[in-house]
Amino acid sequence: MNSTAVKVLRRLGALDLGKMIARGRLSVSGLKSREKVSNLPTLIDRHFLAISQPQHPCRETLSTALSLLGERPAVIIETGSSAWGTNSTMLFDSYCNSFGGQCRSVDIRLEPLLTLQSLATSHTKLYCNDSVSFLNELSVENNKIDLLYLDSWDVNWDDPMPSAIHGLNEYLAAIKNLKPGSLVLIDDTPKTVENIRAVQPLLAKPYEQFCERFGFAPGKGALIKQLIESTGRGTVLAHEYQLLIRI
Ligand SMILES: C[S@@+](CC[C@H](N)C(=O)[O-])C[C@H]1O[C@@H](n2cnc3c(N)ncnc32)[C@H](O)[C@@H]1O
Predict the structure, then answer these.
(1) What is the C-alpha to C-alpha distance for residues 186 and 148, in angstroms, rounded to an integer?
(2) pLDDT single digits (tens) 26-73
(3) Is the dihedral of CA 147, 229, 171, 223 positive or negative?
(4) CB-based contact 240:191 (threshold 8 Å)
(5) What SS3 state is found at 219?
(6) 3 in a domain, yes or no?
């Protein structure tokens, strides 16, 4: 790149932006003003009806996790911002906007941050970074996350281990901010072959092949579940397509 082009880009702020993204330092707060909802069941109904699907397979576990927050202010940390899922960032933003607290959501791509900034309220802060780096650096009040939602590295069901390892690394990076009572909800961790068949019927076969080979089920939270079960640190509260744990 010649020096004139560099000067123009610098003047436009593009070089600083590039450096911030490369260092994982780019974060913005939501700018939208949204209506508060007076109770959680209505908030959940509205979310799944208007933004997602009324009978979404993740609805039950997301509802359970949010009801355990008791309509009180909460610190919600999410990896994998709203993209091709349940529009979870907007659900958590709605919770914090209505009942108080803060949602921080990280994604390795810039696009979710750019899209969500104009949709979410100031209760939500959006980060562009690798989720493990983000969680390693994360500092929250009283070192306590109320709800950690892990939904980043997508599972390749023909080769699910990289996603499970990433999920475990996220969990280990977050541990310093998980205290007794903290909730951890992990997406794409089907308990049985029926749970995956209900969502993606063609993936039942690779799911079963993994179970036969490794002796446990695949998914984003597969290795987190192994850790919880072998150490006894944490209790499984619910397990369907998603896995919900209380520390
Ligand atoms: C399944 S989507 C998230 C869906 C979202 N939670 C929702 O409900 O709409 C997974 C997201 O994780 C992001 N991702 C993948 N690897 C990541 C990583 N190492 N760190 C942070 N985000 C990552 C992807 O860019 C993608 O946006």
Answers:
(1) 8
(2) 999 999 999 999 999 999 999 999 776 778 899 999 999 999 999 999
(3) negative
(4) yes
(5) coil
(6) no
pLDDT for res 10: 63
Looking at the CA of residue 86, tell me the nearest atom of ligand 1: 8
What is the 110 CA–ligand 1 centroid distance (Å)?
11
Rounded Cα distance, 236 and 6, in Å:
53
pLDDT of residue 151: 98
**HSE-CB for 232 with a 13 A CA cutoff:** 0
Question: pLDDT per residue over 182-205, tens digit each?
Answer: 999 999 999 999 999 999 999 999
What ranges in the chain are assigned the alpha helix state H? Answer: 3-11, 14-22, 40-46, 59-68, 88-99, 111-117, 131-137, 161-174, 193-199, 204-214, 222-231
Q: Is residue 6 part of a domain?
A: no
If one counts the domains in the chain, the total is 1
The pick from 26, 86, 90, 108 for probing ligand 1's pocket by mutation, whose C-beta has the most ligand atoms within 8 angstroms, reads 108
Return the best residue to mutate from 90, 109, 200 for the ligand 1 pocket (most ligand atoms within 8 A of CB).
109
The answer as to whether 154 is a domain residue is: yes
Structure tokens that stand for 139 in this block: 């500092």
Domain interval for residue 230 = 27-246
Residue 193 belongs to domain with CATH number: 3.40.50.150
| Domain annotation covers residue 2 | no
pLDDT confidence band for 11 (50 / 70 / 90) = low
Q: What is the DSSP letter of 178?
A: -
